[in-house]
Structures are given as C-alpha cells and as structure tokens.
Amino acid sequence: MDGRSKDLSAFGIDFSSPVAVECSASSEKIKVTLNNVLAYEGPFNKGIGNIVGIQIKFQGSGRLDSFKLSKIS
C-alpha cells in the first residue's frame, strides 16, 4: 500500500516498548489495530487464499511474546 495516497501515520509508533498488533479480515475488509487503536481499515478486492505460513521480521533485535492465528466465524 502506498503511503503517499493512504494515511499510514498511525503505524509510526514506538515499537521499543511492547505493542499489541491485531489484524483481521472479513467481509472484504481488512482492519489493523495497534494497542487497541484502529491504525488502518480498508477494502480488499481479492482474497489471498489459504494461509500456509507466517513470517515475522524485525529491523534490529525484537521479541514476540505471543501469536495467535484463528478463523473468525
């Protein structure tokens, strides 16, 4: 997604402290929250199919305390 045409300023938070990140998709809409505050919500036109893996990257050192992947009914 292009930050020149979308306001992505909510992602500019201090990740040096723990941050709760949640991403959900339903009804052709994706939603991302950071510390329970909506950071982005928008439509997606095409599904990505089944999720077969997850990759998490850090720039520098990082830590993941928990991770949950579930299907929303």
What does this protein look like?
The chain has 73 residues and is mainly β. It is 0% helix and 26% strand. It is built from no helices and three strands. The chain has a three-stranded antiparallel β-sheet with strand order 1-2-3, with no helix packed on it. The radius of gyration is 14 Å and the shape is globular.
- Judged by helices, strands and strand pairing, the structural class is mainly beta
Distance between the termini: 27 Å
Order of helices and strands: EEE
Largest sheet: 3 strands, antiparallel
Q: What fraction of the residues are assigned to beta strands by DSSP?
A: 25-35%
Detail the poorly predicted runs.
none
Count of DSSP strands:
3
Radius of gyration: 14 Å
Question: Helix count?
Answer: 0
Q: Roughly what is the average pLDDT, rounded to an integer?
A: 83
Shape: globular
- Biggest sheet, spatial arrangement of strands: 1-2-3
Brief overview:
The protein is mostly beta strands.
Strand and helix layout:
Elements: E1 21-26, E2 29-34, E3 37-43
Defining key terms:
73 residues, mainly beta, 3 strands, globular
